[in-house]
Design brief:
mainly alpha
């Protein structure tokens, strides 16, 4: 259980670092995901 929490926190920290250093990539990924969701819900 403790190991899982450590792994999750590491993943969250990595995601934060990526979000800080690569904002363009994060925005494009989010917009692509939103477009896919919109096309699926139609």
């Amino acid at each position: 259980m403790k190991r899982m929490i450590i792994t999750l926190s590491m993943v969250l920290a990595f995601a934060l670092i990526v979000g800080i250093f690569l904002p363009e990539n994060t925005v494009t990924a989010q917009s692509e995901a939103t477009e896919k969701y919109a096309s699926l819900s139609e």
